[in-house]
Every structure is written in C-alpha cells, then in structure tokens.
Design a protein that fits this description.
The complex is a heterodimer of chains A (334) and B (511). Chain A is an all-alpha fold and 334 residues long. Helices cover 73% and strands 1% of the residues of chain A. Chain B has 511 residues and is α/β, with parallel strands linked by helices. Chain B has 3 domains: 29-246, Rossmann fold; 264-337 and 422-499, P-loop containing nucleotide triphosphate hydrolases (Rossmann fold); 353-419, no CATH class. Classes of the chains: A mainly alpha (334), B alpha/beta (511).
Chain lengths: 334, 511
C-alpha cells in the first residue's frame, strides 16, 4: 500500500489538530459556564464552599444524569423517551408492593431493574416493530405507567423499606463521597465508552444522521434502537432504586416532571435534539451545571418555581450563545 | 438530421436556444420547443435527454442561462413558478403535487380560492365552482372527497381541474399514464381531446410509442440535452423516431476489455413481489458485468433492493456460490457478499453528517475493530486505502461527506462497499447526475473490478452506457424480464423496442 500511496494523491487524516477541535467544542464552552457559575456561587453564599454541602448538592443531578446518559444515545439515534419519570414511578411502586410481601434488598433491586427493562421493552416494541413515532408512544406510556401506580397506590404511600436498602440513596463510600456518585461515575464511563469507543456507538451516530443510509449500509437499525430503549428503561430502573432508597417511601407522584429535566440536561449537554451529534462528556458537564445552578439558587433561598425559570433561561441562553456569536462575527466580516 | 416543420400558425409558447447548465453538466444546450394552441406536442427522448429540465424551465422552477421564451411572440422571463402560472402555463407532474389531507375543491382552488366579503374563503362558492370544473372533465367523485382517498387516475383529474381553474393555456403532462390502467388511460385520452378542443396547447411527455402516435399531433426530439428535430406526427413513423432518439455521435468512449467469466456466483430463481416485479430468473458469473435496462418504473431498482434485503420478495430463492441463502436484511446481504450502490445517493447512499472515513468503514467495522471496540488507526488505514484506489478528491478523511461533490460522494459509497470485499456489486444508475470526468472514472473502475473477479450488476437508463459497459443486458418491462440480450443483439433500437414493447406496426391516427 505504501508504494501506491507515494504515487497517488495523499489525503490527510484530519485537517485540524485535536487541541483545536477540543478548544472549539461545545463542551469547552459549557465547562466555561460551569466554572463561571461555580465562581459566582462562591461569592454569593458563604455556605457554598463546604464539602458536605457540595456533597448534598450532587443529589440534585445524579439520579437524573443516570437516565440522561442513556437518553443521550436515544436522542442521538433520532428517538426520545418521555416516559422515564413514569417508569421510575412504576418501578418504585412495584418495589413498594414487593416490600409488603416481605421482599429483601436483593429482590427489590431485581424488581426495580426488571420493571425498568420491561417498560423499555414495551416502548421499544411500539417504536421499532410497529414503526410508530417514539414521541407519541412515550407520551402515551408516560400516562400509562404512572396511571398504573396511581391505581395501585391511590392516596397511600409504601414505606417500610429494609434498612440495607437505604445504602443506594443514603450511603457514603468514604468521607463525603456518596454511593450515588459512584453510580454516576460508573454509568458515565460506561455510556462514554459505549458511544465513543465501540461499533455500537458508531451505529448510533450513523442512524441519527441518516437512518435510511444506515440501513442501506447493513446496520440493523431497529435492533440498535430496541437496545437503546431497553437501556433507557434500565437506567430509569436504577434511578428508581436510588430515588426510592433516598426518600424511603413511594408515592405515585414520585419524580413527576423529571423527564423534562432529563431532556433539558441532554440538550444542554450539546446533544442535537434532531439526532446525529453530541457527546457524553457534554452531558456530564451539563449535569454539573444544572446541579450548581439549583444548589446556588437554593442557598439564596430562591423558591423552586423561580429556579425552573433560571434553568429554562440557562438552556435557551447557552444554546443561543454560539448562534448569536456566529451571526455577530458574520456581520462584522461583511 | 435536424428537420423542422413549417408552422401553420403561431405557437403559444416558443422556447428558442434555451440553455441550462449546472455545475459540471449542461442539461439543456440551445434547445427549441414550440407549442401550438389546440395541438398536442410530444416531447420524446431517452432518460437524461433534458425533458424534465425543460418542464422545470417552462414552469419557472429553473431559470435558463441563455435563450428566450416567447408567449404569443413576446419574450418573457419567468423569475419564479408563480410567473409561469400567471402566464397560463401549468404542469401535471409524474408524481402529481397535490395535498393529500385537503379535499378536492381545496386542492383545485388552493392559492386562488374565492373569497367572501370578510376576506375568508367562500367555501360554498368554491365547491360550486369546483363541481362545474369536475363536470366539465367528467370526474366521477365529489368535491368534498379527501384527496388521500382518490386513486392516481382521479388525482390526475384533480390536477387537470386545477389547471382549468386557473384558465391555463398550456398544459404540460409529464408521463401522465405511467401509473394508470388501460381504462383510465382511455379516459385520459378523451380528456386530452376535450382540452384540445378548448384550444389549449398540450405538451405531452411519454416513453410509450403507441400513445405518442395515438394522441400527439407533433413531436419534438431531444437527445443529451440538445434539440434533434421536430415535425408533424403524420410525417414520421416509429422507426425514424427511435433512430432520432438514440442515434448519436460516438462521443463517449468506453473502456474495452475481454471478459474473463468464471463460475456462477449468483443465481436468482423465480423472484416475485406482490406489486413491483414478477418471475425474475437469471444467473450471474464471476467477472461479468450484467446490465439492467428498462424505462423508469420497470421495477429494476425495486428488484435490486429486494435482492439486497430492503424489501422481501413474496416468492423466489437466491443461490450464492450454489448454496441457497435467505436474505432478510441488508446486513444479511452484506454478509453474503452482495452490496448495493443506490441511485439516491443523498438519502440512501452516504451518511451525510458523518466524516468520510466513518462512511467508508461503516459496513466493515467488524474487521477494523477489536471485540467491538473501535480502532481509529485501523479505520483510517482502510479508508485511505480505498479512497486512494478510487482517486477520491477530498481535503481530509475527517471531512463531512456532505461537503463533497456528487461524483466524490459516489466514490465514497463505492469505496465503502469495496472495503467489505464483496462478490457481487449492484450499481443503480452509477453515473446519473455526475460529471463526464467522474463518469469515465466510474466506468474505468467497473472494468477493473470485473477483471479482478468481482461480478457487477449495473442498472442504467443510459443506452450508450448499458451497451458500452455490459457483457450481457437484461431488459425489464412492467416488472418482468422482457429480453436478455448479448453480442450482436445489443443495439440501441433493440433495447428501446423491448423496453417500450413495440412489437407491432403502429396504428396511425388520422390528423
């Protein structure tokens, strides 16, 4: 091959260096935002720079982020799952029900993960086998899954989870480091590797950019999408275990509205809502940004409803910024 | 021999020395076309002769680079489709552009619906006017019917009613009978007669010789984007018309080769599909280039996609190297060494948005990766090898394929498949819409592949390409194999005859 390479036209692998690409990336911009918020928080509240307070603040985003990583892959592939918060409700209800029949922690974990997987499979069947649009299917199952929880629980709540079950949502590994942080890190690495370092991840990008051409390239498009729905369901199951363990009780309204916060985190992380591009490091930084904003505002005694205004403005602002910048530079150039 | 008829009256529309170029391609080269009131002019030519471009120039979708369009002798320029519509030119397209979710009356009057005093759409008046138009053309459905529920023939009627509603003087019919049954075609002919009687000028585009001789008063022939001749239908016969269509100067040189055929690689037995094709049987030998010729809609691409696992045949078997293989998906086809380079590069070929190297390695990831994990160095190596073999012109392998020219995108798609080391490569219209230079490169490359023992199936609607490249040609018509030709039988006239089913002498219509 080297002989012919000398004769024929040489095409370089890449034009821009790695450093240049990283510098210009969305993730770098987002990291700047994260650092800025960190600095602002440090100055506005004396309670911010405290290891225990910061540790507590991570609960703001760890559970959402677990789902967001799986959701990121799903959105890159051009699909979406809006039923994730309802899957949490159903999985949590199932675990609470099992407690009434004397289930122990290992059984509860299996039930939580199992219900998550089943719900994911349910969504997947409608989207990949029947070919229905995922946004419609999962809006439907969003009501369906939570509806089942309401039928089972009504106005009641399940309590009485075993003491050992508290480890997932309330446990500490060492000093201020929580069990949920460990889950967050392990899951982030898992999805980062899956998306960026494997053939499967490449297929996800190909499908998101052009599902027809991906099919015509021999990729089993529907199989890949099925797996992505399963993974999102499974992560909702994991989040259900952590959240139920942390709260110590199950109500049917658990995690209401969390699906939109998850999608916000994914989009803030630079994942194209239309599919095809984005990265896991972006979602990791977005998780921290959202956690820092919520925590900082909380320290200032800003009520929750106002907090959601800030998160909304942040999302629109961060997304509009690069666009405004390019319009500005284009005008300067002309 | 260019020949011109003496006009008996002044044309409504006359195109004079119209030229339209696209980057790298001259689609129309100084063509002329005259349309007369109360007469049907047939525009005849092979695929790629420039008929569709002509329609788009006439309807204001394309702006010509040179030449004049005259309406009643006055030069006019259409800046946009509305200008053409205002000038009374309307087109009924191959796939008629209407709105499925609206009712018949709304479709007829969209953009110029009657208004009431408040400026809102006067629904009652609209339905009344629509009913008048439908009665005029004898349409058998209600003005309230949803367009979605109508068949293709009735949709054509809606399009015609729409043309009448804007008081069109020129009606362009682009292969209007392509999807119609015999009875519906007869009804369409009657309608064309009605329009003629109303003094409308009709441009009729068709590949079917029987209907050209049945319905047209005049003909105009284009070839390779250039005007060849025109005249009265009464003055010409089918053989002469076919000759004008296909006869060409030898300006394209195809690589010569001595085929070195090996054993049977692919055997297709009795492939059937409920709607697209039926009873397809053939064998393909190692190192052979097999051409598939036919008119648009003959079922060639549909059959190829079925062979590639996109659609499932209802019946039939496929043997690869003598063993029966079941192909349920493109992934199965690739695993069995069959690959497909689609006609629609933008949608089905390249994954726009992914860089070149990822496009090339997409079906070969199993080979370049280690237990499911990507090895970028291996990917770049494989991508570079095939990019250089195809002489790809790109700034870097990391460039988005979307930024490449059509010809280079095609090279990426071909490179992608060659990297899988296939046994059979199916090329669907491999040189359609790419410049002459890239065309020659693709032809050269096909020859090289065949000589290396790859079997090539080439679907092409360009007669010179089919004849110049193929060892053997299968002609398809209406989803079936109409003929299998090789050697001395490979002549342009023979191909056209089998593709269009001209077996008997044409019946003349008294003018």
């Amino acid at each position: 091959m080297s002989d012919t390479a000398a004769q024929t036209r040489h095409i370089p692998d890449r034009l821009n260096s790695r450093a240049f690409r990283i510098l210009r990336s969305w993730e770098t911009l987002l990291l700047g935002v994260a650092i800025a918020i960190f600095v602002i928080n440090t100055f506005t509240s004396p309670y911010f720079l405290n290891a225990w307070n910061l540790s507590d603040a991570t609960f703001n985003f760890t559970e959402k982020a677990m789902i967001a990583f799986a959701m990121a892959l799903l959105i890159i592939s051009g699909e979406i799952d809006l039923s994730v918060a309802s899957i949490i409700a159903l999985a949590s209800t199932a675990m609470g029900l099992a407690v009434q029949y004397g289930a122990g922690t290992p059984e509860l974990v299996l039930i939580g993960l199992g219900v998550g997987l089943l719900c994911g499979a349910f969504n997947a069947v409608f989207v990949t086998i029947l070919g229905l649009p995922s946004i419609v299917v999962t809006i439907g199952t969003m009501s369906l899954f939570r509806g089942i929880s309401y039928i089972i629980l009504g106005d009641n709540a399940f309590r009485g989870y075993p003491d050992s079950f508290a480890w997932f949502g309330q446990g500490y590994l060492y000093w201020v480091f929580t069990v949920e942080m460990l889950f967050f890190v392990v899951i982030a690495i898992f999805y980062g590797v899956l998306l960026h370092k494997t053939n499967f991840g490449r297929a996800v990008y190909a499908i998101g950019n052009n599902p027809t051409a991906a099919l015509f390239s021999g990729i089993r498009v529907q199989r890949v999408k099925f797996i992505l729905f399963l993974l999102t369901g499974l992560m909702s199951g994991v989040a259900a275990i952590c959240l139920t363990s942390r709260l110590g009780s199950t109500r049917p309204s658990i995690a209401t509205g969390m699906e939109l916060e998850v999608v916000t985190m994914v989009v803030l992380g630079g994942i194209n809502i239309l599919g095809g591009s984005g990265s896991i490091p972006g979602v990791v930084i977005a998780a921290f940004v959202m956690g820092l904003v919520t925590f900082g505002l909380g320290l200032l005694n800003v009520p929750g409803i106002v907090m959601s205004i800030f998160i909304g403005l942040l999302l629109i602002g961060v997304i509009a910024l690069p666009r405004l910048w390019s319009m500005f530079t284009a005008r300067r150039a002309s | 021999m260019p020949q011109s008829a003496t006009p008996v009256q002044t044309p409504v529309v006359s195109m004079d020395a119209i030229t339209k170029t696209f980057p790298g391609v001259t689609a129309l080269d100084q063509v002329k076309l005259d349309l007369y009131p109360g007469q049907v002019t047939a525009l005849v030519g092979e695929n790629g002769a420039g008929k569709s471009t002509t329609v788009k120039v006439l309807t204001g979708i394309y702006q010509p680079n040179g030449g004049t369009i005259r309406i009643d002798g006055t030069p006019i320029a259409f800046g946009n489709p509305n200008a053409a519509s205002d000038a009374g030119i309307t087109a009924i397209h191959q796939e008629t552009v209407l709105f499925d979710e609206l009712c018949v009356a709304e479709n007829i009057f969209i953009g110029h619906a009657p208004r009431n005093k408040l400026g809102l759409i006067d629904t009652r008046e609209m339905h009344r006017a629509a009913q008048v138009l439908l009665d005029e053309i004898g349409a058998p459905f209600s003005t309230h019917a949803q367009l979605r529920d109508l068949g293709i023939a009735n949709k054509h009627l809606v399009a015609i009613a729409r043309a009448l509603s804007v008081d069109a003087r020129v009606v362009i019919m682009d292969e209007p009978t392509a999807a119609l049954s015999h009875k519906e075609i007869e009804e369409l002919y009657t309608l064309v007669e009605t329009l003629k009687a109303q003094g409308k000028a009709i441009l009729f585009i068709s590949h079917k010789f029987d209907e050209i001789f049945r319905i047209a008063d005049r003909y105009t022939v284009f070839r390779d984007g250039a005007f060849v001749g025109d005249g009265l239908i009464a003055d010409i016969d089918e053989n002469a018309l076919v000759k004008m269509m296909v006869g060409r100067a030898v300006d394209q040189i195809f690589p010569t080769r001595t085929p070195n055929l090996g054993e049977d690689v692919l055997q297709v037995v009795g492939y059937d599909h409920p709607t697209e094709f039926a009873d397809i049987n053939f064998t393909l030998k190692r190192g052979e280039i097999l051409g598939f010729y036919g008119l648009v809609g003959a079922g060639r691409s549909e059959f190829m996609q079925s062979l590639f696992g996109i659609t499932r045949p209802s019946k039939g078997a496929c043997k690869i190297n003598g063993k029966i293989r079941i192909i349920r998906s493109p992934a199965d086809a690739v695993a069995n060494g069959i690959v497909y380079v689609p006609e629609d590069r933008g949608k089905q070929g390249a994954v726009i948005g992914l860089p070149i190297f990822q496009n090339i390695t997409l079906p070969s990831l199993k080979r370049t990766s280690r237990s499911g994990f990507l090895q970028l160095a291996e990917e770049f190596k494989l991508a570079r090898e095939y990019a250089q073999r195809l002489d790809l012109r790109a700034a870097s392998l990391d460039q988005d394929v979307g930024n490449l020219s059509g010809g280079n995108q095609q090279k990426v798609v071909i490179a992608k498949w060659l990297a899988t080391q296939p046994q059979v490569i199916i090329l669907d219209e491999p040189t359609k819409g790419i410049d002459i230079g890239s065309k020659a490169a693709v032809h050269e490359f096909m020859t090289e592949l065949a000589s290396q023992g790859l079997s090539v199936i080439m679907v092409s609607s360009e007669i010179p390409e089919v004849i110049g490249m193929s060892d053997r040609v299968i002609v398809m018509r209406d989803g079936r194999i109409a003929a299998e030709l090789s050697g001395d039988d490979l002549r342009p006239e023979t191909l056209v005859r089998h593709a269009a089913d001209i077996t008997t002498a044409p019946k003349r219509q008294e003018a």
